[in-house]
Backbone:
């Protein structure tokens, strides 16, 4: 049962039209938060998120914005402020997946897209959020969604792996810089989650069964499981938690050395 841990808070969640972002918007609403829903391509998904938030009795506004574009990020926050007058929680969730291209064949424009979305996006959003929270006298929560691939390299995933490692260090640096303002900054590093990033496995039970064999729990996570940890990090329960990485992977990273 929800405990109202985010009552009267306003959360801005990038990429909240599906997957972890959509699930987090719903869980935040259950805990009392109003939500700024951001999307790039999936307007229908964003509308479904809005309906889920409003079903919980909370308010939502949907904003189309490409987080890789500095100007659009500014407009995203402007709309959030017009709608709610504040932003208390920022969750940087929008991202693009690995290209599957090894470095020798990785086009510059593909590399740039990953870095612009997965690194510049959180940077632009964090910078604007900090400016707003400074004007408000401090306080607030930043949650950056990374991946187990901030640590685990994957052939064909240099663009994704490097971007997630960079955001982990952005998180840790911000934790030091923002401690005087009492702004908590942490990151979530999921393993395999049943989101559109893993649509092929969702659609093919045999493929899914094969892919989860390296996970000790022998299953992928549901988006809501990641979202419930995000609720904790967004709440006052986590007021003394900053600069931390929370890995949710069913034991995957502990299992990688087995059988060597």
Residues:
């Amino acid at each position: 049962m929800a405990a109202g841990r985010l009552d009267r808070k306003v959360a801005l969640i990038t990429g909240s039209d599906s997957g972890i972002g959509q699930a987090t918007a719903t869980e935040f609403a259950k805990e009392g938060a109003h939500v700024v829903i951001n999307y790039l391509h999936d307007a229908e998904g964003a509308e479904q998120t809005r309906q889920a938030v409003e079903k919980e009795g909370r308010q939502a506004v949907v904003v189309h914005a490409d987080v890789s574009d500095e100007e659009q990020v500014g407009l995203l926050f402007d709309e959030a402020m017009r709608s709610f007058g504040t932003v208390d929680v920022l969750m940087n969730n929008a991202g693009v997946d690995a290209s599957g291209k090894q470095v020798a064949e990785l086009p510059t424009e593909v590399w740039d897209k990953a870095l612009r979305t997965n690194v510049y996006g959180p940077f632009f959003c964090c910078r604007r959020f900090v400016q707003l929270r400074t004007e408000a006298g401090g306080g607030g929560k930043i949650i950056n969604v990374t991946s187990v691939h901030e640590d685990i390299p994957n052939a064909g995933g240099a663009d994704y792996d490097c971007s997630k490692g960079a955001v982990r260090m952005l998180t840790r640096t911000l934790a030091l810089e923002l401690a005087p303002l009492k702004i908590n900054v942490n990151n979530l590093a999921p393993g395999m989650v049943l989101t559109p990033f893993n649509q092929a496995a969702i659609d093919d039970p045999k493929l899914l069964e094969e892919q989860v064999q390296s996970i000790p729990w022998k299953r992928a996570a549901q988006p809501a499981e990641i979202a419930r940890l995000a609720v904790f990090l967004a709440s006052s329960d986590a007021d003394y938690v900053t600069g931390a990485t929370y890995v949710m992977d069913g034991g995957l990273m502990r299992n990688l050395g087995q059988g060597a």
About this structure: Residues 10-247 form a domain with the Rossmann fold fold (CATH 3.40.50.720).
